[in-house]
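Record type: monomer structure entry
Structure origin: computed from sequence
Chain ID: A
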Amino acid sequence: MAYLLDRGVRFAAVSRGGLPIPWGARGVSGPVIRGEVAIPTGVRVVDTSGAGDVLHGALAYAVAGWPGERNGDHEPFVAALSFAAGIAGRSCGAFGTRDWMRA
């Protein structure tokens, strides 16, 4: 993540399975801001197949609908990442990569 942020990428995150998701954001000018997004709790994990793909797809969906940056604001990215983590967590509660959408 540091490699990307050091080269001008504005927002980055790294999924780590069942661990919180660290993220970093670089403002228009200024230091990198870092934090973590919690993963959902209380999910009875049945299958993690495709969870990373679901996370990426949900993040892309959320980012496509965000209002954009306001003066380098990182909050929309963190909200999108939190949304995506929730969707990915939900996908782990069903067997296979598509059954969770019917639950």
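Annotation 1: Strands lie at 11-13, 21-26, 32-37.
Annotation 2: The mean pLDDT is 86.
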